[in-house]
Amino acid sequence: MRFREHCLDNGLEIIAECNPAAYSAAFAFFVKTGSRDEDDATSGVSHFLEHMTFKGTPSRSAADVNRQLDELGAYSNAFTSEEQTVYYVAVLPEFQDPAIDLLCDIMRPSLRADDFEMEKQVILEEIAKYEDQPPFGAHEKSMAVHFGAHPLARSVLGTQDTVSALTPERMRAYFDLRYAPNNMTLVAAGNVDFDQLVRLASEKCGHWQSRPVDRLTPRAAANRDFQVFPHDVASQQYVIQIANGPAADEDSRYASRVLSTVVGDDSGSRLFWKLIDTGRAECAVMYSYEYQGTGIFLSMLCGVPDDTPDNLQEMFDTFREVEIEGITAEELAQAQNKICAHIVLQSERPTNRLFSVGDNWVQRRAYQTVREVIAAYQAVSLRDVQEVLRQYPLTTHSTVAVGPLRTLARPA
Amino acid sequence: MTQSIQIHTYDNGLVLLAQPMDWLESAAFSVLVPAGCSRDPAARLGLGNMTCEMIQRGCGPRDSRQFVNDLENLGVDHSASVAVTHTSFGGAMPADKLPPAVEIYADLVQRPHFPADQLEDARLGCLQELYSLEDDLAQRAMLELRRRQYGDPLGRHSAGELAALEQISLGDVQQHFATHFRPNGTILSVAGKLDFPRLRDQVGELFGGWPARTEPELIDLPGDRVHHHIDHESSQTHIAISFPSVRYGDRDYYQARGAIGVLSDGMSSRLFTEVRENRGLCYAVYAQCHSVKQRGCVVCYAGTTTERAQETLDVILQELRQLAQGIQSDELQRLQARLKSALIMQQESSAARASSIAADWYFLGRVQTMEEVRAIVEALTCDSINTYLAANPPQDFLVVTLGQQALEISL
Predict the structure, then answer these.
(1) What is the predicted pLDDT for the residue at A122?
(2) The whole model's pTM is what?
(3) Which of A83, A290, A364, B320 could cross-link to A34 by cystine, CB 3.0-4.6 Å?
């Protein structure tokens, strides 16, 4: 396993974790852009643009792109989050060159007007799909409520209205601003020929023009809002709570993941034993997420509407208890074992390493081996967890409920 | 890609399948017990699920909490589920933790506690699963389709029925366990970094005393295959379509799989191109082969807004019928590239391989090596697939929809 890095003159960084023993190779462009970089007039454009990059370039039609990806036997996809848009492709090592040629090409899409209108329909269908399925928009609403005027409040998909109002010109302007090479990283993992990767990327991407790109990364304010959104199509009640947590560059993120595993993992956690093992709720979990400048603990409760007030109180009591008493040494050890085993299992696939290596680089400009990440989790102490709880109290959270209930009492 | 698959059948009928993958640091197992929901008594639909809930609440020397804590301290990523034919347990872990994990599951299938004071908790857990299905509209449409396609009990879903779940007693659970948790018919598959002779001996010691039982008869009633619409005030209409096809294990299976691959595998497949790319009708559309041991079918799904649902259904049905006209060689080449690359990438996951070899044993009574599958994929030709399609054109469609409006089905 060897880490390699190179930066083109225009600022495009190329990094790779090379493993000559791997069966496959995975490649991705991490573009540092997402819903947090949008405004009211461009809400949903990052995600829409992700779709449009597959719709053709000056030298390839949309059908060419799809056909060539399949010809390589490639497993490829893309996703957009609040702060990243990632395009990835996993292939057998012998297809590295054509895969890179294609991946680099689609990063300069044509954005043709007729394709734009057709794909807009697909995006509107995607929005309708999420409106129809659990948790029925609760995630977007909870981010909007928690973050308020902060950039992370924006929905990744946008709404029917904002997406309908988008134009190719506005997308083009956004693309020119955000897809500058100095705002992108080409990441590789697995059985990769790094020197060849650099050669081909220089040829295909070396002429892209860099330009100044920035992003606002304020810390989010604490928030205790409590809002209920009636939604009659749902039969279960969905509640999401968000508390602030460590940001991507804070070392306490390891302790925060340990904490969220102890409190809210989907198996063997405090919420599991209180609410899932007893059959009181369908789902009761808590996860930690880190962003640039800020982070969150996101908890979700789902169950029968009538049981929701008691279950929500139980969650609140669980948070309060852990704030006062901390976690036990046994809980710490079990969470560390679970997290470290999970990391080892995940790391066997180059595509999984691709996302870890890329995310670490984009968020922190750092490379960590699997062993280093495991050591960091094993080094977490009870005191570290206590410090996270002191700095980021779990009971200081915003709440959004979506489902049949009209009202819901705030736990005390 | 040389693969050796080790197979050992114990005196009580238990089958151990193992695929050593020395290049990995992990190991994974699947245990398939012949206690699927097709074995639920008609008045106790959901009993298999309830038994699966209860069986994980303590076994051997461990109570409910210790069971979970032990697995998690070993770093076992564990799962349990009930499907039509089997109750299955799975685990993936760092390779050196395989022996203690197997020990825990030996207790689970042979020495569960079934604590009476946790019966109500287990029942509530099963009811939660039933309630959650209410909100999963795509799955509701697919489940209704499967029920009508496969009939009873092969078209069932393990969640069961509300009235039945409310009546299940501890005695029912114990009886179900005593009848259906048996070594004959159980498959234990392991893949990853492993020492086969040691594993074989360990499994023999831990499971050798498990007494075999008679396999109960299964009465298989075919589905009514009548079109159905479920009224629901949803934004999208969920469209589920099926038609009869060959099952996994049939000598023509890979011909059918190849044809459906051209229809739905990859971004240049016909459904993705015609429904999504060329018409923008939906975000999600797919077709896939589905099998039970007795028979097979092809299932298709699309979700689309109400006003575009009719066109979506019409286009999918047209593509299905069009398939009978045959496929082109470039379509087949792309499919072969995808299937071969998927086979090679399967070597990167012990869990994927463990469940794949267990399924092979159940359907085929043997395990196909990856070389064998690759040879089959390479041997596919347009002629072989088109000959199959000419003799077995997609037809006799069954359509289930869920949404605001019923659709016209132009067959």
Answers:
(1) 96
(2) 0.95
(3) A83
